[in-house]
């Protein structure tokens, strides 16, 4: 890996942390800083809206890094993965400019300039292929470690053939409270969710294997300790979920923290913030103090929204060091006000912006390239309560493409359907995380806004029972509603919008008075539940024996989300094109599109019943286009959202 010097760090006048003022001879105050889920967000800029954004950007997070370094003599900076994909700059590099041997990826260049000490891989590092990922991280001036993604499995994790070093030991001279420098050895080990083999099977199958996170940690920790690590930091691109270890666990930070030898955990993947109230009530987790099994942990939001900081007080113990005190905290880059405006809390670090200024300008030219025109606006503010134009256009494009691809095959002539979900529908992304494209010219930035991920198009062949199960899985988006009651909360906050598949080509209603057949993670909890009613194709009821082809994406078809009929064994078409490229080609070929939703799904009537749902404040401008719904504004919601009341 090439090593490039970081620029001089800006000195900031800051108050010393109490550990620094308390440390005496033989005591060291060490600050561990962490970012996670940067997703190529370097500039404070929303490339989809083509306007500045104060809520994102490593250039802003870097201001906190400079401040923390000024507050303590000893500091290390880590990244927790998912840095290579996630916005149009990442797409521009992957699809337009390319990554040849020796090229520098802009996010790596920015991380070099900020001065990271180590990183690990997330699942999205592989969205553009394994070779792209390896060429990109080759430019890192810091070690990138990954313990559970390997080229060949051995008899046990320590005998695997690694893809990258499973861990690194950083030898640092740290200054104690008396001003004396001491050698301290910091072990750093990295993990990614095992589900990456499902999500990016097309890129990874036959090339790498992925082990369980906790199993891998248990095998490597004795090795790291035997090599002389005084403390060990786990860079775990995995969330804070179930407290007990389950093989293949996606969000494994709680059982990982219990592994002997791990001293601190930097979590991620969930796009949430820890410490924080969102994790109240989880066994072995102190959401206020920021500890898991009594050990310090952080999760720094996403897109550079927060810097996680773990403060450690180390004390000499024999020939090594032990932790005698710790604190966990987050430093946000912005604050959302009660009036829904955003106040930046830091300014961008100029040297970080300058490092990728050329790529930023090239990305702007790329996203502004026109591809067609639309007769109507494309917006997703109501995508979770009604058929939606931003989802409709994706479904139309997928069906158009697959219809042509199936000609001359044994599947030609089967009823063709199309499954699409709203990727930008608020939730963890916040009240600005919605598609909002005005009528008129459509540019590449708008297509990227409609389809955020570089999935490839797939088609699956299912029967009527699997189709119904697929829709029942999607209907887990909603809480169970009691008929006749007023103002019940409609949306399940644990259910991500990208799992709310709308299937075009059939008509159906969702009976909210019924229980959900599946929980938010796709686990079957009530086999007899039937929320999907009046399911028809061309006006005729759908029977269990009928057969259909569904156009979808590689993530879903390969088992992502655990949908009936989409577990990897029903695929009949593996297209060479991404879904986003299909949407782009569809718009370009049509020239002028009419994306109005066809209203093929709706809620079953529940007389005398109202529900509340949250959406972005800009939804108010589109109320007059939602006449099919009985809607009215219902005041402000938490976190900058607004609420609507929907009569059922």
TrEMBL record:
<dbReference type="InterPro" id="IPR006179">
    <property type="entry name" value="5_nucleotidase/apyrase"/>
</dbReference>
<dbReference type="GO" id="GO:0008663">
    <property type="term" value="F:2',3'-cyclic-nucleotide 2'-phosphodiesterase activity"/>
</dbReference>
<dbReference type="GO" id="GO:0030288">
    <property type="term" value="C:outer membrane-bounded periplasmic space"/>
</dbReference>
<dbReference type="InterPro" id="IPR008334">
    <property type="entry name" value="5'-Nucleotdase_C"/>
</dbReference>
<keyword id="KW-0511">Multifunctional enzyme</keyword>
<feature type="domain" description="Calcineurin-like phosphoesterase">
    <location>
        <begin position="31"/>
        <end position="271"/>
    </location>
</feature>
<dbReference type="InterPro" id="IPR004843">
    <property type="entry name" value="Calcineurin-like_PHP"/>
</dbReference>
<dbReference type="InterPro" id="IPR036907">
    <property type="entry name" value="5'-Nucleotdase_C_sf"/>
</dbReference>
<keyword id="KW-0732">Signal</keyword>
<dbReference type="InterPro" id="IPR029052">
    <property type="entry name" value="Metallo-depent_PP-like"/>
</dbReference>
<dbReference type="Pfam" id="PF00149">
    <property type="entry name" value="Metallophos"/>
</dbReference>
<dbReference type="Pfam" id="PF02872">
    <property type="entry name" value="5_nucleotid_C"/>
</dbReference>
<protein>
    <submittedName>
        <fullName>Bifunctional 2',3'-cyclic-nucleotide 2'-phosphodiesterase/3'-nucleotidase</fullName>
    </submittedName>
</protein>
<dbReference type="InterPro" id="IPR006146">
    <property type="entry name" value="5'-Nucleotdase_CS"/>
</dbReference>
<keyword id="KW-0479">Metal-binding</keyword>
<dbReference type="GO" id="GO:0008254">
    <property type="term" value="F:3'-nucleotidase activity"/>
</dbReference>
<dbReference type="GO" id="GO:0046872">
    <property type="term" value="F:metal ion binding"/>
</dbReference>
<dbReference type="GO" id="GO:0000166">
    <property type="term" value="F:nucleotide binding"/>
</dbReference>
<keyword id="KW-0378">Hydrolase</keyword>
<keyword id="KW-0547">Nucleotide-binding</keyword>
<dbReference type="GO" id="GO:0009166">
    <property type="term" value="P:nucleotide catabolic process"/>
</dbReference>
<feature type="domain" description="5'-Nucleotidase C-terminal">
    <location>
        <begin position="387"/>
        <end position="564"/>
    </location>
</feature>
<dbReference type="InterPro" id="IPR041827">
    <property type="entry name" value="CpdB_N"/>
</dbReference>
<comment type="similarity">
    <text>Belongs to the 5'-nucleotidase family.</text>
</comment>
